[in-house]
Design brief:
Largest sheet: 2 strands, antiparallel
Number of strands: 2
Strand order of the largest sheet: 1-2
Number of domains: 3
Strand content: under 5%
Radius of gyration: 24 Å
Order of helices and strands: HHHHHHHHHHEEHH
Structural class: mainly alpha
Distance between the termini: 51 Å
Shape: globular
């Protein structure tokens, strides 16, 4: 069981001031010991709600941070070639903010930039980021009934990624250990996306299990394989598919 993030005194303060202060003001009240997201989830657990005037005030305070026409121009011009990190330096906005805005505006990386980004392996979180992610997830509990409802609402043909149940179809006899070992050896016994060497699987590029030609097979780690199949970012998936086809065609 995870430790309780808020003390009883902090809960009392939250109950007293939550309805009248914005989350940014509450964050300052707690001397930045808790993030705004943690304050929001704790208030939800305590059944607290904000007054409409406070919500309106928070929106007005956030409004000056909306994207200007000049910023949007820079985003459209430089994001395809420089990515989130490059645009972030030009605009002094966080890479996550740039990434989110570009996704909403359907602005994507150039194919060469996408390939170069995956050439040097995965980017790992630093210790401070890991700590923040850990703290943000604490205190968020769901009942068994709630978890079951969530599962039922995303199972089978209710899932956004449902493809007619083809994952349950059997593989052909030619997709055997000998073939899988040959493809892994061709790809250097590593994932072609992140260069990882653990939990490797063989992916069918056209997603047809019966097409076991060498130029249709690629080596991926389990994490990248799941990212491909469960990503909602369709243009990003298309870029990955083009990358797979080029790599498999070049090495076969």
């Amino acid at each position: 069981m995870s430790r309780k993030l808020f003390t009883e005194e902090e809960d009392k303060l939250l109950i007293e001031f939550y309805s009248n202060l914005t989350n940014a003001e509450l964050e300052e009240l707690f001397q930045y010991k808790h993030t705004r997201k943690q304050i929001k989830w704790r208030a939800k657990a305590l059944g607290l709600k904000k007054m409409k005037e406070v919500t309106r005030r928070a929106y007005e305070k956030f409004k000056p941070g909306l994207w200007t026409e000049e910023e949007l121009y820079i985003l459209k011009k430089y994001y395809p070639t420089e990515g989130a990190e490059g645009v972030s330096k030009r605009l002094k906005r966080s890479p996550d903010s740039v990434r989110h805005k570009s996704s909403r505006m359907k602005i994507f990386l150039d194919y060469e930039v996408f390939c170069a980004k995956h050439a040097n392996g995965p980017t790992n979180h630093n210790e401070e980021t890991k700590r923040k992610i850990s703290l943000a997830g604490k205190g968020r509990k769901k009942s068994k009934e709630h978890r079951e409802k969530l599962g039922d609402s995303h199972r089978g043909n209710k899932n956004w990624n449902w493809k007619g149940g083809k994952s349950f179809l059997p593989y052909p006899s030619e997709f055997n250990n000998h073939l899988r070992k040959r493809i892994k050896k061709r790809d250097g016994h590593q994932c072609v996306l992140c260069s990882g060497k653990k939990r490797l699987v063989i992916h069918h590029i056209d997603e047809d299990k019966n097409n076991c030609a060498d130029e249709n097979l690629i080596t991926l780690c389990m994490a990248c394989h799941n990212t491909y199949h469960f990503s909602k970012d369709k243009p990003q998936v298309q870029l990955m598919k083009e990358f797979f086809l080029e790599h498999a065609g070049r090495t076969s």
